[in-house]
Amino acid sequence: MTRLRKWSWGILPVYNGFAHVERVRGWQLVSFLIDVGQMPKASVCSISGRTDRVQYHSENYYDWHPYALNQSIHLTLHQRFKSPDRWRRIVDQYAVTGEEWFARLSMAPVDLAGQLRAQHGDQIADVFNRVPLPSGIQVPRHQVYRIEGESA
């Protein structure tokens, strides 16, 4: 059975209303899908087309369809609330129609997680229970990231 990757970095700030634990679980799920061959490794930045230092980025950690981004664009995207001019330069450089996913991102923090829980119920947060997997592939639930004191 394929193991879930273990989070070994610091605490992530809230992003789009998703708390640290939700973001780590989203990362674990995407990594697991890559490890079991259900998703390709990130290879081409969906904004710039660059192929160096590409990693996945999620706007919605309750979903398993992240965007591949070059690391520097990824960091600028996350810093857009504090440094909007840097982000606007990227959008201006790469957007063609203005309807691209990255061109439509809010320039102010939003609570997408709260909106999704209100619309679909708290069970939406259990991404490991909802992800469609082929038969024979099972998530090692005992390895899902938990905060200290949280029950399985």
The rounded distance between the terminal residues' Cα atoms is 19 Å
What portion of residues belong to β-strands? 5-15%
* C-alpha-based Rg, rounded: 16 Å
Low-confidence stretches: none
Most strands sheet: 2 strands, antiparallel
Tally of strands: 2
Query: Level of helix content?
Result: 25-40%
Label the structural class.
Answer: mainly alpha
Q: Would you give an account of this structure?
A:
There is one protein chain. The protein is mainly alpha-helical. Helices cover 32% and strands 5% of the residues. It has five helices and two strands, in the order αββαααα. It has helices at 20-35, 71-78, 84-94, 112-120, 127-130, and strands at 54-57, 67-70. The protein starts with 19 loop residues before the first helix and ends in a 22-residue tail after the last helix. The relative contact order is 0.19. The mean pLDDT is 95.
What is this structure's SSE topology?
Blueprint: H1 20-35, E1 54-57, E2 67-70, H2 71-78, H3 84-94, H4 112-120, H5 127-130
Antiparallel strand pairs: 1-2
Structural key phrases:
5% strand; 5 helices; 152 residues
Brief sketch in words of this structure:
This protein has helices at 20-35, 71-78, 84-94, 112-120, 127-130; strands spanning 54-57, 67-70. It is mostly helical.
